[in-house]
């Protein structure tokens, strides 16, 4: 599954990326020791207050979208604490990447508990993936795209690692829906900006009609 087997080493259930014999390090907004605060912050503050969105509706929408997805190679960008383990059917092969080792450790427990037999977690950036070309059937990215500094590189990596005609499913806060002018962290795009960026890279961009606070749900299919 890797671009270069020698660059990836597992340590305690989490895969690390090596460059010149040294593990790559990443700067995460939430210090490892405070990772246990992530779920309460998302539940009690980010979803209801910052995004004006319902976490229940978010999970229900994604569950419905993914309920017929079985035995596929799934990639998630920005796994966080592993909430997709409650949404995605557990007979899929799952690869989750994130720059926070603390959150990946929480995710590891959740994926075990949810009965996934085949899952791997990677400490790495969405901007530089260790995976080989044309490997994944579906890529999912929830409320993380706004944190990627170099979106061009992320989309190039998606083009490279996704199989042709496969789907990127994303939920992301956008300017147009942030009607209460809340301060939302990261790079906040408009729907049209996202459409232009994805279409310029050969993806067919399709917003879902579902609305949930300032979140846009869209799919982008790799056309050519
Ligand atoms: C708001 S959280 C969302 C996590 C998860 N998808 C969820 O729905 O709970 C954003 C995540 O993106 C991760 N992240 C930020 N920059 C990243 C990057 N360049 N590559 C991979 N993950 C990144 C953060 O560490 C964080 O876990």
TrEMBL record:
<dbReference type="GO" id="GO:0008168">
    <property type="term" value="F:methyltransferase activity"/>
</dbReference>
<dbReference type="GO" id="GO:0032259">
    <property type="term" value="P:methylation"/>
</dbReference>
<dbReference type="Pfam" id="PF13847">
    <property type="entry name" value="Methyltransf_31"/>
</dbReference>
<dbReference type="InterPro" id="IPR025714">
    <property type="entry name" value="Methyltranfer_dom"/>
</dbReference>
<keyword id="KW-0808">Transferase</keyword>
<protein>
    <submittedName>
        <fullName>SAM-dependent methyltransferase</fullName>
    </submittedName>
</protein>
<keyword id="KW-0489">Methyltransferase</keyword>
<dbReference type="InterPro" id="IPR029063">
    <property type="entry name" value="SAM-dependent_MTases_sf"/>
</dbReference>
<feature type="domain" description="Methyltransferase">
    <location>
        <begin position="70"/>
        <end position="200"/>
    </location>
</feature>
